Amino acid sequence: MHKPTVTVRYTILGVGVVYSVLLFVAGVHLDTWYRYVIAVLPAVGGIILTAWDAWAWRQPGLSRLTHRPQMAGLWQVELTPTDESHIPAGGNRGPIPGFLVVRQSYWSIHLRQFTAESASRSRTFFWEHADGAEAETLTFVYENVPQQQFEHRSSRHFGTCSLDIASLRPTTISGAYFTDRYTKGDMRLMLIDRSKSYGSFEEAKSHADAARGQS
After folding, report:
1. For the chain, what is the domain count?
2. How far apart are CA 165 and CA 81, in angstroms?
3. Average pLDDT, the chain
């Protein structure tokens, strides 16, 4: 499912600006200060909403008010299926290495996971904040598509993942997953850096190896 976050963001901003401009073009007389405020309010509101969604919520003081953790970036992933998982003969029983690429604004998040045999893409998500916790936790539904050479033992499927996030700027995350193939397991995530432009397991691994070499 396409999430047109950027389109919506700039549509809100554009409508507000156009509305304010049209008031002037139409010859509306703004002879008092409160009428002027009314005229520019939609544009200002659009600018504020756009700034909030894009970057303002990440600022230290504001992030503590929202409890929304900052997850954008490249993560190294280790998947460990349970012994009860229905994994076909010849399948990978783990631990399975992978990478998670996260793109995030305040109102949206998109997660793309790569392993050597398949790629997953998030379809929907929700945040939950437990009383007293510093940060919200994230649960999302994803679709996994295997490479064609592995389809005989690893079919296309859907799954749900829950990430237990302990801080507003996490560098490690634990989680769990289960799928409609009757498999489930644990996850461990470690932040590599805040880069996000990767389209395959090999590309992400190459960057991760280079990043480790520089540290």
Report:
1. 2
2. 20
3. 85
